[in-house]
Amino acid sequence: MVRKPQSYFVAQVKSINDKGACGIEYPLKVKALEDGTIGIGPDATLGCPIMTALEIWMRYSVQPAAFVNFGMPIVEIRQISAYSCRTRNSKKGAELSEHAFGNALDIAGFKLANGRYISVKTDWNGSADERAFLREIFSSACKTFKTVLGPGAAYHADHFHVDLARHGKDGTATYCKPSPPMTPPARRPFIGAKYAAIPGQPRYGLSAAYTGSISKSPDQVTISSQLPTYDSSPFFPQKEGTEQTIEQLLPDSIDDLAVGSIE
């Protein structure tokens, strides 16, 4: 599957044929996710499958959890490793990391619309809202990705690692460490106005840019001071004694939400 986006935020670039088995056939240079809603800093080079999984996670978990816990959206992900031709944990003699195929992302933290930064390293055991947010999105990541590592896993005290590696005999098993600390609730997906996370541009209020179209370049956007809203009511009608989970919201496979042409 090849995603061929035409926007300032995501662009297909030349194939990467690195040393050994490292490389990406159809790499994407990603500045932002979700139509420019969530910036990635610095820009990340990723494969199409992990890009689609990230957008699912942002829409169905990260943004809803941010609104519930902080009353505002995430505007930027701080990533510390995307494509990288290296072994697991950069250990000599180890197997190649999923980073070597553009199939993984390491996330150190999240920036809110008001500029507040939520750090995996310092806030995993931080305030009540910080703990709730990070634990919810970690748990939901275990429903979206195939490998999820965070505080409690060796070498991952300061970031979340997510990838789509194949585990188990049929390749469908999931590996999460630590074990998911909660059952993630089924929140309404966040699909709001397109606010561009553009480097050097304001975002929400004095820190937001409204695009109207992902095809527009940074010099064509106009600034908006209006924050998006979010309906935090349960996504499904709740019956006494029942619990709805994020699994009822997610598609059967990542491919179900892939966009763009297939070649």
Overview features:
single chain; alpha+beta; 263 residues; disordered C terminus; 3 helices; disordered N terminus; two-stranded antiparallel ribbon
Provide structural commentary.
By secondary structure, the chain is α+β, with helices and mostly antiparallel strands. It has one domain (10-256). It has three helices and 13 strands. Strands 1, 4, 5, 6, 7, 8, 9, 10 and 11 form a nine-stranded mixed sheet that branches. Helix 1 (48-70) packs antiparallel against helix 3. The longest helix has 23 residues, at 48-70. The model is unreliable at 1-5, 195-224, 236-244 and 253-263 (pLDDT under 50). It comes from Bauldia litoralis. Pfam families: Extensin-like_C. Residues 10-176 form the Extensin-like C-terminal domain.
The parts where pLDDT drops under 50 for at least 5 residues are 1-5, 195-224, 236-244, 253-263
> What order do the SSEs take from the amino end to the carboxyl end, as H and E?
EEEEEHEEEHHEEEEE
Helix percentage: 10-25%
Number of strands: 13
Radius of gyration: 18 Å
Chain-averaged pLDDT: 79
Distance between the termini: 6 Å
Q: Characterize the quaternary organization of these chains.
A: single chain
Largest sheet: 9 strands, mixed
Shape: globular
Structural class, by secondary structure, is alpha+beta
Beta-strand content estimate: 15-25%
Q: How many domain modules?
A: 1
Number of helices: 3
